[in-house]
Amino acid sequence: MRTRLLAATAVCTAIVCTACAGGSSTATGDAAASPTPAAPAAAGWPAESKSGCGQSRPRATIADADSGKTVVVDINSGKQVGAFDLAGKAKLASAGGDPLLVATQGEAGTVQLIDNGVRWISHGDHDDTAHEAPRVLEGKGEGKKPSHAVAKDGTLAVFYDGTGEVDLIPVGKKAAGKALVVERTLASGAPHHGVAVPMGEDTLLTFADEDTTQSLPGGLQVLGSDGARKQTFTGCPKLHGEIPLGKDAALFGCSDGLVKLSRESGVWKDTKLPYPAKDDEAQRVGTFIGAEDGSAVIGDWGKRALLVIDPAAGGTTEVKLPASLSAMAWDPFWNRGVIVTDDGQVHTLDPRNPKELPSLNVLDKQPRSQGKKAAKPAIAIGENRAYVTDPGSNQLVEVDLGESGPLAKKRTMTLDFTPGSIVVGGLDSELDEG
After folding, report:
1. Average pLDDT, stretch 93-104?
2. In what side-by-side order are the strands of the sheet with 288-290?
3. CA nearest 348: which of 391, 311, 399?
4. In this predicted structure, which of 67-76, 86-95, 113-122, 183-192 has the lowest mean pLDDT?
5. In the chain, N or C: fewer CB atoms in 10 Å?
6. pTM for the whole thing?
7. How far apart are CA 87 and CA 160, in angstroms?
8. 263-298 per-position pLDDT tens digit
9. 199, β-bridge pairs
10. For residue 313, with 0-12 CB atoms within 10 Å meaning exposed, 13-18 middle and 19 or more buried, which class applies?
């Protein structure tokens, strides 16, 4: 059952019509970077007739797997509307909704924000869109080995593995077009491969394991708005993987099960959720996708399986995959997971009906060569569509997910670089957090 609809586009105001007539308006202001436009990075694909005034025109931001090159593509037309050369290879992620996304550049020790240029304009009973030129915001976060970046409630938390520190950065609609500003920096205590989850006045932050040879965290701490430690939880060894569950809870993956932290009257408590029987000792959850309210969650369960998780009841259901997991993303329009396996198939998984796994062969099975570390396919979700990068053939593939019918391969775009991560924005103002 679909839970969210795209914003209506029945009313056309002067400002929106101006944006429609001019395509993409020029970015202005002190926060706008001025990268030199790169040569066209895509051969494009057939345009779709979705260019009505005020109508949503989604944009895909795609990072090169081998350099700091990053491009922004108008999905409807297939035309490139922006290109930037960042400081280093970037991992892209949403920074809490349009128009911002975060580019975490681990090797370069840099974090930057990209404004995709999508603007939502409220008309009371509906929202329209306007489109500006994409830009890289002025300002940056800097530190040793930035890794996990988590956005929630208008705050982006970036963890630096090399120092164990966390930058808290304002994001969301209020930060659109402004410079990246580090509001606060919190200290976890020691370097490790950790994560921080902003939860309003509190921040859930990992701390290093007492075993200094272990890079994964030894547990979680709750820091208040003043940075002081309020609570500590040690029941999640080798923590990796996190997902907020609404306003007052979060779920974490551990080597021996799942830990749910929940807040009541300002106090946090932990609940351990057991794993099902393991195929081998190394099997665990390390990555999550799921509904924003926490009603449904899916986690990776080793290499060739998934776990459908009910955080409220604490139950799990194992779903076997036909091949190893490559990537997965949550479809917020139909509340389901979309999964890519390394045999080139795309699958949809409805947590309410985990016994069915509709599938479609989409990608060529051809790993990268030339001695480079293989880039894996990445996936981003649009309305009834998925956008899958194919690093083996340097392509972006559009898949029709359908409402209930079979999956179908729609359009293919050839890129002049090997695609790494991808974020799609400009879909639905109701999905934005900031």
Report:
1. 92
2. 288-290, 297-300, 305-310, 315-320
3. 399
4. 113-122
5. N
6. 0.87
7. 17
8. 999 999 999 999 999 999 999 999 999 999 999 999
9. 202
10. exposed
